[in-house]
């Protein structure tokens, strides 16, 4: 069991993909119970970080620790025990098209627990309702759902094992404003209830202001700044200024800034 | 958070026998449902016994059980599954009329528990997916098949009309697409087709040669080989190979394009998918397949020739000298003539099935299977029809 409270720790992570250095030394850490966002303009390698943490990409150099263990040096069983402790929401939802929504949500339970079928079904239904999906959607196939509902179903699947760590890739990108707001609230609720640590990649300024404790701003393969959003918006760094001082950035700052003392 | 202690129950039969102490990790990994249920049942049975002893009336319904207390103060960790277990017990008991109170749950877990309580109220039995069974399923399949046939005919008609508009304006023909289709379906298949036909030549000679040798009619192997390879085996096997190779590729590719809305994008830009995607594929394959058939003819005969030389000791020169004398040109032409028809069958079915993909990856698989199976089926049907036709025409 790890004693340090850093759930994720990246140390000098570099990666070159197709002869291009996507990351040139990424450092940051996410502490237990924090909600940390990775922001930055398109193509700055935000999703790549997530993929490295998820072991879908192996960094060229540097270490990534999850729950205090260097994931690139773990045995398969060690990896599995970590995989049971995180939940992942992919950008395109990545629900299995051949399974119904309920079967999708229940899938990790079937794979990783010895619960009986009835309990699994009940737990899956609870999660389905908890993310705000109607009961009738349980028997539908992913192709019969709208984009927003797919996201919710995928979130329910990510949460079914009650993970300690939740990794989200652009969770609010396809949601309507109402849905996005509900999603933000859901995240805060989940953290309060389940002691969740959340790392998310997002462009959504509202989500950044409303949910995050810290934001890692990525530019040119490095973390340009790692600070609470309120501090980040005051940065004089040109890339960060350009990102946050556009019309949208200023509008959200006016809206939320007061609570943060700006 | 420790993963060491498992969820357990404890109760003391003496004092406070109505109190159940929940201990340990009430999580997915900590709960052993069977053991936990057993302990809970034992607890209930104990209380029931007590009640019976104490009360004269021997009532064994639980209505009169004194209030039960679930003490959760020793729970070290709880997740949804743990909360759900507690909720179910409480729910079950209170439905039987017992008074149950949950105490000592830490504030954090209490939030989780009330959350579960709230969500559980919305739980209902799931509606069933409408599924056809028996006769209805049979009927639905037939209707689906008819509808598919109808839309296939409409598809063919549309392609035909579109192709008519192309002929007066050859510039509308996407030449580069056409060339790449010919390259992918024809040129890159040369190796496998050559190998396949060579081996078929060997197999045929081996099987037929043995029989002919018995009768001392070894020289007839040339007639037999020429007729069977040129007329039947080369066109048929090439077509089946291409159906598996290129037909499936067409379906999967168009299917993914459909799923990713690429086909819709083309439509909105005023580019007909029929013109850009479908027609070049059909035309390309119609050009490539006869050429591949000639290629298969050559290698089939070569394979047969090699085997004849080895087994029946007929020299290469003899073989080639006799070949044009005993094998008619019509055999070759009939074989090659069948190829464009097969190509039309493969390409039109493959494209049609590709455009029918909807939903997700599952559907791509299903339509690709349908595409290959239907193509091969109709190739063989067409071949049978050709045989009947040619025999009535006496060719």
| Mean of all residue-level pLDDT scores of chain B | 87
Terminal Cα span of chain A: 40 Å
Give the overall shape of chain B, derived from the CA principal axes. Answer: elongated
How many strands in all of chain B?
Answer: 4
Radius of gyration of chain B: 38 Å
What's the structural domain tally of chain A? Answer: 2
Q: Which blocks of ≥5 consecutive residues of chain A have pLDDT under 50?
A: none
Query: How many H/I helices of chain B?
Result: 12
CATH superfamily annotation of the largest domain in chain A: P-loop containing nucleotide triphosphate hydrolases
Largest sheet of chain B: 4 strands, mixed
CATH class identity of the largest domain in chain A = Alpha Beta
The run of helices and strands of chain A is EEEHEEHEHHHEHEHEEHHH
- In the CATH hierarchy, the third-tier topology of the largest domain in chain A is known as Rossmann fold
* Spatial strand sequence of the major β-sheet of chain B: 1-2-3-4
How many helical stretches of chain A?
10
In the sheet with the most strands of chain A, the strands line up as 6-7-8-3-9-10
Give the topology string of chain B: H per helix, E per strand.
EEHEHEHHHHHHHHHH
- Of all protein chain pairs, which has the greatest interface, and how many residues does each chain bring to it? A-B, 31 and 31 residues
Low-pLDDT segments, ≥5 res of chain B: none
Question: Rough shape of chain A?
Answer: globular
Write up what this structure looks like.
The complex is a heterodimer of chains A (262) and B (395). Chain A has 262 residues and is of the alpha/beta class. Chain A has 2 domains: 6-85 and 165-260, P-loop containing nucleotide triphosphate hydrolases (Rossmann fold); 97-162, no CATH class. Helices cover 39% and strands 24% of the residues of chain A. In chain B, β3 (68-78), α2 (80-95) and β4 (100-103) form a beta-alpha-beta unit. In chain B, α7 (221-259) runs antiparallel to α9 (273-312), α7 (221-259) runs antiparallel to α12 and α9 (273-312) crosses α11. Chain B folds into 2 domains: 8-121, STAS domain (Transcription Regulator spoIIAA); 151-393, no CATH class. Chain B is an alpha/beta fold and 395 residues long. In chain B, strands 1-2-3-4 form a 4-stranded mixed sheet, covered by helices on one side. Chain B is 71% helix and 7% strand. Chain A binds chain B through residues 1, 97-98, 100, 102, 109, 113, 115-116, 119, 122-123, 125-127, 129-130, 135-136, 138-139, 141-143, 161-162, 164, 192-195, and chain B through 1-3, 27-29, 33, 79-81, 84, 108, 111-112, 115-116, 119-120, 122-124, 126-129, 358-363.
